[in-house]
């Protein structure tokens, strides 16, 4: 067994174990922490197959940003998990069907891949540049920003629409809220706000 | 002399990989921990000088042994765990903070070829590790089961996520000028001119964001002793507190090292002329880090703490649009003058 194999099994075992703990942990915050551990180990697996760019982006985007906000929300929530569990049996058939469909699709994909058939259509038939000539950062950049630039831009636009939609849905103008007007504060002149007066003794202002 | 060096080099190359890696780790970590101890001393002395005080001057010559005395004191104290605390997460949080602070140093180039792991995506690795730093704080805040600690943790999460965005855009601007994610290549690209001259506004933004990212004054709201009485680490004592403390200071050194690598030419001398390039690269690197650290401390001694909404406004409404405009501007200039690497 080489070092890479040992590392692979270590990452894979921790990944699967923490993935199981995500759905079995009683405490929702523990679930999110195990989810983060799972992301982290997935990044380790990416490094092992030589996709270091994807690994780093996975850590930066999912662990560093998405999961932080996730944890943020879960910590603030006051969820009673006993109550949530009561509906478990009721929803289980639907969940099993969805899971079965996904599993079957995954098997189909693996079988076609093993048979040597094309999986991703044209993208898979394009020649793959040798690894020693182009780093995978460059390769991903080439595909995203040159070969499929319009598809990439469209997906960006969809995200933008979703973002604006979320803002529009939550924005409500509340009257009577006092806000700091920084420009106004900085514009104040001494003459407008400070007054020097001669105060007579025992006279008061 | 060169004979001995060649023999040493041959001896080094003969050692098994695992021994070389462990030796490399020790060569980085031990000076780093000593440097961290000296940084606390340096901070107290500099702030004392700025406020017309003496600073530590009793333990050892000029008070130099003060940080070690402090460390010893912390070690000998009792670790108190709150009854309602979530023990596992409570102890994992300081360990995680300390671990992440150390792990990032694997990719820092101290000189030409002097780097433990010369990986292709060095900048992204640093960025990833520094964005993980928030977990230690947020876990500590939650696991302590105390309202002050929790508020501190929430503040830290929002603050660090906000400032990461502008740090990311600053890094993109630098990468546009370099054309590589490798840290050594970033330093070598600054042979003609250090990036803080052409990208001066980004340098300032990066420095301020680094202050916010490491929770240093004037952005130390997660600690905020005047309103949160210590913030996320209020329930921590003894060694667990010491680990947070170590983590914070090592992160400060790390962010300074990042500033030096991205903007101040890493191990390169200011001018490649006779007396300056006699000094070895690592010494230049350390000197520049010390300068940036001095600025960190200078800011702390000078400025009052920000209010929380001001902090958020600065991050999202000032830095984000400004750095975004600079990314577009830089790439425009590079494309127009055909300077893209």
From TrEMBL, chain A:
- Catalysed transformations (reactions): a quinone + NADH + 5 H(+)(in) = a quinol + NAD(+) + 4 H(+)(out)
Q: What class of enzyme is it?
A: translocase
Q: Name one Pfam family in it.
A: Oxidored_q3
Domain of life where this protein originates: Bacteria
Q: Which GO terms describe its cellular component?
A: plasma membrane
In alphabetical order, the GO MF annotations are:
NADH dehydrogenase (ubiquinone) activity; quinone binding
What organism does this protein naturally occur in? Niveispirillum lacus
Q: Topologically, how does it sit relative to the membrane?
A: Multi-pass membrane protein
Main function: NDH-1 shuttles electrons from NADH, via FMN and iron-sulfur (Fe-S) centers, to quinones in the respiratory chain. Couples the redox reaction to proton translocation (for every two electrons transferred, four hydrogen ions are translocated across the cytoplasmic membrane), and thus conserves the redox energy in a proton gradient.
Residues that span the membrane, as ranges: 6-24, 31-49, 55-79, 91-111, 150-171
Q: Which family does it belong to?
A: Belongs to the complex I subunit 6 family.
What name has this protein been given in UniProt?
A: NADH-quinone oxidoreductase subunit J
Provide the protein's localization. Answer: Cell membrane
Please provide the record's keywords in A-Z order: Cell membrane, Membrane, NAD, Quinone, Transmembrane, Transmembrane helix, Ubiquinone
Question: EC number(s) in its UniProt entry?
Answer: 7.1.1.-
From TrEMBL, chain B:
Q: What Pfam families does this protein map onto?
A: NADHdh
| UniProt key word Methyltransferase | no
Q: Which GO terms describe its biological process?
A: aerobic respiration
Q: Which reaction does it catalyse?
A: a quinone + NADH + 5 H(+)(in) = a quinol + NAD(+) + 4 H(+)(out)
Gene Ontology molecular functions: NADH dehydrogenase activity; oxidoreductase activity, acting on NAD(P)H, quinone or similar compound as acceptor; quinone binding
Q: Does the keyword Nucleus apply?
A: no
Q: What is its EC number?
A: 7.1.1.-
Q: Where are the transmembrane segments?
A: 17-42, 87-110, 122-142, 163-181, 193-212, 241-263, 283-303, 315-337
Q: Keywords on this record?
A: Cell membrane, Membrane, NAD, Quinone, Translocase, Transmembrane, Transmembrane helix, Ubiquinone
Alphabetical GO CC annotations of the entry are: plasma membrane
Report the InterPro entries cross-referenced here: NADH_UbQ_OxRdtase_su1/FPO, NADH_UbQ_OxRdtase_su1_CS
* Cell compartments where the protein resides: Cell membrane; Membrane
- What topology does it adopt in the membrane? Multi-pass membrane protein
Entry similarity comment:
Belongs to the complex I subunit 1 family.
Known role = NDH-1 shuttles electrons from NADH, via FMN and iron-sulfur (Fe-S) centers, to quinones in the respiratory chain. The immediate electron acceptor for the enzyme in this species is believed to be ubiquinone. Couples the redox reaction to proton translocation (for every two electrons transferred, four hydrogen ions are translocated across the cytoplasmic membrane), and thus conserves the redox energy in a proton gradient. This subunit may bind ubiquinone.
What PANTHER family does its record include? Answer: NADH DEHYDROGENASE SUBUNIT 1 (PTHR11432), NADH-UBIQUINONE OXIDOREDUCTASE CHAIN 1 (PTHR11432:SF3)
Q: How does it assemble?
A: NDH-1 is composed of 14 different subunits. Subunits NuoA, H, J, K, L, M, N constitute the membrane sector of the complex.
Q: What is this protein called?
A: NADH-quinone oxidoreductase subunit H
Gene behind this protein: nuoH
């Amino acid at each position: 067994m080489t070092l890479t194999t040992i590392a692979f099994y270590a990452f894979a075992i921790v990944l699967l174990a923490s993935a199981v703990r995500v759905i079995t942990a009683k405490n929702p915050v523990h679930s999110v922490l195990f989810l983060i551990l799972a992301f982290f180990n997935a990044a380790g697996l990416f490094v092992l197959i030589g996709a270091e760019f994807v690994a780093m982006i996975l850590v930066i985007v999912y662990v560093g940003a998405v999961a932080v906000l996730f944890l943020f929300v879960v910590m603030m929530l006051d969820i009673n998990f006993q109550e949530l569990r009561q509906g478990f049996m009721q929803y289980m058939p639907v969940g099993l069907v969805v899971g079965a469909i996904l599993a079957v699709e995954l098997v189909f994909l693996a079988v076609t891949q093993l048979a040597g058939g094309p999986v991703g259509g044209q993208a898979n038939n394009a020649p793959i540049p040798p690894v020693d000539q182009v780093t995978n950062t460059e390769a991903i950049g080439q595909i995203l920003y040159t070969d499929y630039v319009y598809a990439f831009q469209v997906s960006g636009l969809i995200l933008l629409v979703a973002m604006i939609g979320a803002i529009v849905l939550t924005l409500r103008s509340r009257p009577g809220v006092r806000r700091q007007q920084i420009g106004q504060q900085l514009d104040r002149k001494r003459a407008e706000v400070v007054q020097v007066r001669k105060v007579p003794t025992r006279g008061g202002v | 002399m060169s004979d001995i060096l060649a023999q040493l080099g041959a001896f080094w190359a003969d050692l098994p990989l695992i021994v070389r890696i462990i030796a490399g780790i020790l060569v980085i970590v031990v000076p780093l921990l000593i440097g961290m101890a000296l940084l606390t001393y340096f901070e107290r002395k500099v702030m004392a000088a700025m406020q017309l005080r003496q600073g530590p001057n009793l333990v050892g010559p000029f008070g130099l042994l003060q940080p070690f005395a402090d460390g010893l004191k912390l070690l000998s104290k009792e670790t108190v765990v709150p009854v309602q605390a979530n023990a596992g997460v409570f102890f994992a949080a300081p360990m995680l903070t300390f671990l992440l602070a150390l792990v990032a140093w694997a990719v820092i180039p101290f000189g030409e070829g002097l780097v433990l792991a010369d990986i292709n995506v060095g900048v992204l690795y640093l960025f990833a590790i520094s964005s993980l730093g928030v977990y230690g704080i947020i876990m500590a805040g939650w696991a302590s089961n105390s309202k002050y600690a929790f508020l501190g943790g929430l503040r830290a999460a929002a603050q660090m996520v906000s400032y990461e965005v502008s740090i990311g855009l600053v890094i993109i601007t630098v990468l546009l000028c370099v054309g590589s994610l490798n840290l050594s290549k970033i330093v070598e690209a600054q042979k003609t001119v250090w990036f803080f001259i052409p990208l001066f506004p980004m340098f300032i933004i990066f420095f301020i964001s680094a202050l916010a990212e490491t929770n240093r004054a004037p952005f130390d709201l997660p600690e905020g002793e005047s309103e949160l009485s210590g913030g996320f680490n209020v329930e921590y004592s003894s060694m667990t507190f010491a680990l947070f403390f170590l983590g914070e200071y090592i992160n400060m050194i790390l962010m300074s090292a990042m500033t030096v690598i991205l903007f101040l030419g890493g191990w390169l001398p200011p001018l490649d002329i006779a007396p300056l390039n006699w000094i070895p690269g690592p010494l230049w690197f350390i000197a520049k880090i010390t300068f940036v650290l001095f600025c960190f401390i200078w800011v702390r001694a000078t400025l009052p703490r920000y209010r929380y909404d001001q902090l958020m406004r600065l991050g999202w409404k000032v830095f984000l649009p400004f750095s975004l405009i600079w990314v577009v501007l830089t790439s425009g200039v590079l494309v127009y003058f055909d300077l893209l690497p």
